[in-house]
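Ops channel
N.P.: pipeline sanity check, posting one input/output pair.
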């Protein structure tokens, strides 16, 4: 999916200052296109935290009746991860790929040095997430590629079943290609379950549907810890494991960030939760529009190539013109790290 903002802001981050406790990233609503466009809730990049592991972009949408129509547009230096809860989306790219995606299936596009693609759907109930993974420097110039995975492995335990979309979780590994240590999973919660985590990873949790809560150890275990319910309306959190922080009411669709150091997270309720995570990303990036690069000049060169019809190929079969690139800001874009 494209960032369709007409005046995209420079996305800046810093390599230190992870903070000691959990954070709630409320995000903002972004319309994709004109007055009848679908609205997404963008929680990454945020005002403070720009990344969770290599995950650098999270757009959640729906459930809403809408038509998705994202014209051909370019990408560099990233992977796009498309995950549906409801609906269907037709994907095309400059490699000649034509692939429909349905709930429970993964469409993974690797931009590498450059690709263009489009996405569209009929008017239907759409509900899902679009995520970007930043490619590390050693792999960001790889050739573009596309993968469709209709069947993904599941990690099951008491009270939960986790479909492993990207990376590994509890020893279960997705077949999707990943270029850095990370995890992406849809966790179906039914009761109370303890989902294993890699303590070297930072993690994010986003409610997809139903009701779910992050809960702490029981009375016989050390340390009182309890989180309020992950829900679409107002939400309050109790004391946190990493410090006596409290959060007031949150907007619909917050992303809860957990710093490294956890070997598991306990979830309770009946619903589905998106889990993302990875080793903290140590490289500085420049993210602007649909490009991930390392310098202003690199981003400017990507934009020029797209504007001149070079470097990204052509998407055949889409009934419309490619998406024009926005004007670069008047100041130079600066590479930054993962938090401001």
């Amino acid at each position: 999916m494209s960032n369709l903002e007409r005046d995209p802001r420079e996305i800046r981050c810093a390599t230190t200052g992870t903070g000691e406790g959990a954070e709630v990233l409320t995000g903002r609503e972004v319309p994709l296109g004109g007055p009848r466009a679908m609205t997404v809730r963008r929680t990454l990049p945020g005002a403070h935290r720009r990344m969770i592991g290599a995950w650098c972009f999270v757009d959640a949408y729906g459930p809403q009746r809408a038509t998705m129509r994202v014209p051909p547009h370019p990408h560099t230096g990233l992977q796009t991860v498309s995950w549906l809860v409801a609906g269907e989306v037709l994907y095309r790219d400059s490699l000649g790929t034509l692939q429909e995606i349905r709930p429970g299936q993964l469409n993974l596009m690797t931009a590498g040095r450059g690709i263009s693609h489009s996405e569209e759907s009929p008017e239907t109930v759409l509900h899902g997430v679009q995520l970007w993974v930043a490619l590390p420097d050693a792999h960001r110039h790889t050739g573009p590629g596309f993968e469709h995975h209709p069947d993904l492995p599941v990690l099951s335990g008491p009270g939960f079943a986790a479909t492993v979309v990207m990376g590994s979780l509890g020893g279960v590994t997705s077949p999707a290609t990943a270029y850095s240590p990370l995890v992406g999973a849809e966790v179906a919660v039914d009761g109370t379950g303890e989902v294993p985590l890699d303590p070297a990873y930072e993690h994010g949790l986003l409610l997809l549907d139903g009701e779910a809560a992050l809960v702490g150890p029981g009375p016989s275990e050390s340390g009182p810890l309890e989180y309020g319910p992950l829900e679409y309306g107002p939400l309050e959190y109790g004391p946190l494991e990493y410090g006596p922080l409290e959060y007031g009411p949150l907007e619909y669709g917050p992303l809860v960030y957990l710093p490294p150091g956890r070997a598991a997270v306990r979830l309770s309720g009946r619903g589905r939760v998106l889990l993302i995570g990875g080793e903290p990303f140590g490289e500085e990036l420049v993210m602007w529009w649909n490009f991930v690069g390392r310098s202003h000049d690199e981003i400017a060169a990507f934009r020029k190539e797209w504007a001149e019809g070079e470097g990204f190929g052509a998407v055949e079969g889409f009934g419309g013109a490619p998406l024009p690139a926005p004007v670069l800001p008047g100041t130079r874009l600066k590479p930054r790290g993962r938090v401001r």
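N.P.: looks fine end to end. The mean pLDDT is 85.
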